[in-house]
Amino acid sequence: MIEWAAPSIITAAGLAALAVERAGLNIFRRRVPLRIAVTGTRGKSSVTRLVAAALRGNGRIVLAKVTGSRPVLIGPGGEETEIRRLGQPSILEQKAVLRAAVRIGADVLVSEMMSIGPETLRAEAAGILRPGILAVTNARLDHREEMGRTREAIADTLTRAFLPGTVVFVPEEEILPVFESAAARTGCRLAAVPGQGGEAEPAVEFPANLRLARAVAAYCGADEAGVAAGLAAAAPDFGSLKAWRLRIPGLPPTSCAVSLFAANEPESTALSLDRLARIRTGLPARRVAVLALRADRADRTRQWLEAADKGFFDGYAGIAAVGDHAHPVGRRLRRTLRFGASVISIPGADPARITEAAARLAGGASCLIGMGNIVGVGAALVEHWAANGEAF
């Protein structure tokens, strides 16, 4: 009898604790009636910021949380507080975000979803946030080991955040059949965000991100004047596309650096490069890729090597493989590249050393294109370029 009683008591206590926590979350959710979640492969942080800014411009009390390039909370006045984590990121911090929204009296929570696996994505959406609105940016080939090896498989993983009654906004060019079938199956409403229709392209943000944010804000009752005012005051994400003029001893003053680190994988980086060509003129023609690598993103490193085999770096004057795996990746690139670009490997995370060595690869005025990963050495380079370069 005694041997079986203890587990029964523990089980009962555990169930009671779960019931109390569930009841508490229900109370918090009722006190923050408008909850908006943002998921997808690329652009989540930007869309979260834009939606929050658009609603702030309409007088709403908004708490926003972005996770990607640098985790921060954005308060009702646009003030930012970096989230300090003691361990690995966990979706459980969304509970603290929900409580924080209640504590400051927010009537809107806009939160970037953290999950990349189907089970945790479902738990984050259904168990914690239960958003009335879900914005899906895109489904691209990244986190393949957790989300799937094809675009369709990744899109299917994202549909685990589709809940009954939720309105799901997706740019029309990003809608896949799996989204439509999941919407019909779950009882959510799929809202396609139309294309630009000939409007002038924005100077900074990706057009699809702006369209998505504007559509969500309009659905929430925001008027265009307030949306425009809010967007104009919005701070860019740490990982957004930025460019700086560099001053490096012994090199021409026209050398520059561009951060595309947050694009992470080759497909999104190629789209960012295309955008760079349209919004930044006068960049030096000679380019050096600064490829930032992470030990915990081995599959992403394989994607970059596959892209190199297919000619991604054709036309570059050089490639600097930096950070984790710099030496083996550098050796592989030297063996497989089909052109005469110089390749160097720079282990470690000293941004000044990396910048100078990469800039000298071109032997003259050049543009360093940061790509690969924003977390780690990528972030260190962005901070160094911002502190020592002239933004333009």
Describe the structure.
This protein is 44% helix and 18% strand. The protein is α/β, with parallel strands linked by helices. It folds into two domains: 24-233, UDP-N-acetylmuramoyl-L-alanine:D-glutamate ligase (3-Layer(aba) Sandwich); 242-391, Mur ligase, C-terminal domain (Protein-Tyrosine Phosphatase, Chain A, Alpha-Beta Complex). The strands form two sheets. Strands 4-3-2-5-1-6-7-8 form an eight-stranded mixed beta sheet, sandwiched between helices. Strands 13-12-11-14-10-9-15 form a seven-stranded mixed beta sheet, sandwiched between helices. α7 links the parallel β7 and β8. α2 packs across α8 (207-219). The termini are far apart. Mean pLDDT is 89; it is low at 1-7.
Question: Would you spell out the secondary-structure blueprint of this structure?
Answer:
Elements: H1 2-31, E1 34-39, H2 44-56, E2 62-66, E3 72-74, E4 80-82, H3 93-103, E5 108-112, H4 118-129, E6 133-136, H5 144-147, H6 151-158, E7 167-171, H7 177-186, E8 189-193, H8 207-219, H9 224-233, E9 242-245, E10 256-259, H10 266-279, E11 287-293, H11 298-309, E12 318-323, H12 326-336, E13 342-346, H13 351-361, E14 367-371, H14 377-388, E15 390-391
Parallel strand pairs: 1-5, 1-6, 2-5, 6-7, 7-8, 10-14, 11-12, 11-14, 12-13
Antiparallel strand pairs: 2-3, 3-4, 9-10, 9-15
Helix pairs in contact: 1-3, 2-8, 2-9, 11-12, 13-14
